[in-house]
Amino acid sequence: MDRSTEDGTRLGAHGPLAVAVRQARAERGLTLRAAAEQIGMPFRTLHRIERGHGFDAVHAPALRRWLRAAGEGSSQ
User: Fold this and answer.
1) Is the full-model pTM beyond 0.90?
2) Which InterPro entries does the UniProt record give (predicted)?
């Protein structure tokens, strides 16, 4: 089931992950390319994840650490 974000971006099956990644990136003031570089994944992979149209299990641990660090930074 597809859903949309406030800006009209259509989200695929991984919508909640897409929203979390976009929010963490926005909180850090990062471009998609800069965030992908920090995470250690290709830009296109992160772009697909943010659109909710793909999840790359190979990069899951790095993405999880990056999201966790974003959460820790926002609570301070």
Assistant:
1) no
2) Cro/C1-type_HTH, Lambda_DNA-bd_dom_sf
**Number of structural domains found in the chain:** 1
- The per-residue pLDDT for range 13-69, each reduced to its tens digit, is 557 888 999 999 999 999 999 999 999 999 999 999 998 887 778 989 999 999 999
Q: Do residues 56 and 40 make contact, with C-beta atoms less than 8 angstroms apart?
A: no
Cα–Cα distance measured from residue 59 to residue 5, given in angstroms and rounded to the nearest whole number:
24
CATH number of the domain bearing residue 63: 1.10.260.40
Residues 6+ apart with CB under 8 A from 45: 36, 54, 56, 59
Say which residues have a Cβ less than 8 Å from residue 39's Cβ, sequence separation at least 6. Answer: 46, 59, 62, 63, 66
